[in-house]
């Protein structure tokens, strides 16, 4: 297994010989068992990389990840509504529940690494859309892990099917 390590307290991400700053949730970090929808907390634990979503026209890679990946499409979303039967799953927009839009105006979701938090199966209200993505001006996230764009473009091609993120 290939591990990306995130030291939440230090705000550092390590992957092989890469050691860079990262942003975590505005609510800090918390045990995964305490994670709740909307708390802004990044869940501690080991989360497998489920796949990589790339924004066409905004991302150019010399090599694509060997982890499962696809281009995002207009209308792609992710359910973050605990009342939605598709909670913490990809969905098509528009939808009658609260969702994250995967093609945003900013660069945050130009590369999305989907982490396997609360997905097997999802427990309503226990946290959704925990991604590894590009940060926006180094601001904290809503519970994800984020890094600078140039670093994400360097790391994304190295992601494999057995890659996991350990947040501690």
From TrEMBL:
Pathway: Cell wall biogenesis; peptidoglycan biosynthesis
Domain L,D-TPase catalytic: 1-168
MF terms in GO: transferase activity
Active site: 133 (proton donor/acceptor), 144 (nucleophile)
Upper classification of the organism: Bacteria, Pseudomonadati, Pseudomonadota, Alphaproteobacteria, Sphingomonadales
Record keywords, A-Z: Cell shape, Cell wall biogenesis/degradation, Peptidoglycan synthesis
Protein name in the entry: L,D-transpeptidase family protein
Pfam families xrefs: YkuD
GO biological process: cell wall organization; peptidoglycan biosynthetic process; regulation of cell shape
InterPro entries reported in the protein's UniProt record: LD_TPept_cat_dom
